[in-house]
Amino acid sequence: MKNDLWVEKYRPTTIKDVIGNEEAKTLFVEWLENKRPTKKAVLLYGPPGVGKTTLVNAAANEYKFRIIEMNASDARSEKAVNRIAVPATSFVGLDKFSSEVKGNMLFMDEVDGIAGNEDRGGVSAIIKIVENTRTPVIMAANDPDLEKLRPLKKVCLLIRFQQARIPLIIMALKKICEQEHIKYEFEALEKIALNSRGDVRSAINDLQGLSEEGKTLTVQDTLALSLRNKDISMYDTLKGYFATKSIMEVSNLLNSSNVEYDDLLMAIGDNMPRRYTDPGELAEAYDFLSQADVFRGRVGTENWHLLKYFYNNLAQAAAVNPESYKSFEFISPPIRVITLFWTKSKRTLLDSICVKIGVQCHVSKYEAKMIFVPYLKLMLQQKKKTNTLIEWLKLTPEEVTFLTGLKMF
Question: What's this model's pTM, rounded to 2 decimal places?
Answer without folding.
Answer: 0.51
